[in-house]
Amino acid sequence: MTSSSAAIVPITLTVNDRTGLTLWAPPWEDEDGEEWQGFLGDGKKILLYPNVADLAAFIASGEENDLSDHPGWGQVLKATPDQLRPGAEDQYDLDMVYEWASGEPDPVHVSALADVVDMVGKIADCCDDGALRRLVEGTPAYAELVDEENTYQGKDGRKRWNELGDTIADSWERAIKRVDDWLEWVGDFTVAEFDGDDSIWQRVGAEPIELRFSDATLLTVRGDVAPDAEGDDTETVFLGEPDDNVVVFTEVADLARYCRDAKGHRLVKLEWWSELKDLDDDAFTPEASGRFDLRKPSERGADLVRELAIFCGLEADTDVLDGSSIDKDDWNTLVDEVRTCFDVQD
Question: How far is residue 150 from each of residues 104, 105, 216, 219, measured CA to CA in Å?
């Protein structure tokens, strides 16, 4: 849907392990009825900033940019930092495409994959990159993916999902390279990677995390708290009580509500935990650093599984996690045992 007063939307793009914040203007019509769309740019490239503060500083500078003539630019000039933070639905992770495509075609991953491919198509259109446009919009598997009515269920759906995976394996690296050529990374991304509301989470000493399994994606919070007994060491703690269950969720909104209201867990003892009640639901969406794919062994995943086993008081054989190579069967057995202490809530 187009409008002469269409809003300008903050978004993040993750490309080659960097996440930047920019602005996107969905299609709108000018006074002559001509349709436009665009990104925050300098006439040559899309500008990306490492955090809200840097983006806000650029906006306040009054420097001319590709959206200066947009009918909604005046509202951007008045925007608060919180209004410049993208929602969970406005974060596009090009690096995750391989992982999403290699997993099961569950609706969440299919939707995320479609959103990213669709955004790449918008970049191609706005930058007038014919090769990128042909690669994405001219490829049947990609075109089918962004069709809102599309599903990958059943035998035929599985076949088309596998074909999409083959297409991504063959072409996505080229797509990422062409996209990256149109991006201008402005600022120091080694120090202040865009982190949404991470400043609050860092003060709290915790973070939302996502646990991905073959049949489900679960959400909880992990943090470090001082032990009950005197001492300088800290404990890794999850939502729930030690030697008991870990409270997990399938929806960010449910996780957010629990964190605001529930009292029966160790993390509530953190000094700044009460500040979370003022955060929007989107702030409880795990960042890239808080996402763990437990469908296969990995060093990061092993550390997390070990922490979960200790927290739940499981008499599990975590020694199988030692060493440079983890047996897949041992891994699956241990992960299944850890999942027995999960309390899935809604």
Answer: 15, 11, 21, 27
pLDDT digits (tens, 9 = 90+) for 157-208: 899 999 999 999 999 999 999 999 999 999 887 654 544 444 678 778 899 9
The token pair that represents 109 in the structure block: 């991953």
Planar angle of CA 281, 283, 285, nearest 5 degrees: 85
d(CA 346, CA 338): 20
Looking at residue 44, what DSSP letter applies?
S
> ∠ CA(196), CA(121), CA(132), 5° rounding?
115
Lookup: tokens for 275: 């500040």
Contact 291, 17 (CB under 8 A): no
pTM for the complete prediction? 0.58
- Cβ–Cβ < 8 Å for 249, 255: yes
First to last CA, the chain: 34
State whether the Cα torsion 232-233-239-244 is positive or negative.
negative
Pairwise CA distance, residues 40 & 66, whole Å? 6
The answer to whether 239 and 265 are in contact (CB under 8 A) is yes
Q: CA 137, CA 187: separation in Å to the nearest integer?
A: 32
Q: Are 167 and 135 in contact (CB under 8 A)?
A: no
Q: How far apart are CA 132 and CA 188, in angstroms?
A: 28
**Contact criterion met (CB below 8 Å) for 89 and 112:** no
DSSP string, 50-75: SSHHHHHHHHHHT---TTTTSTTHHH
Q: Report pLDDT digits (tens) over 260-271.
A: 999 888 898 887
What is the torsional sign of CA 323, 326, 331, 335? positive
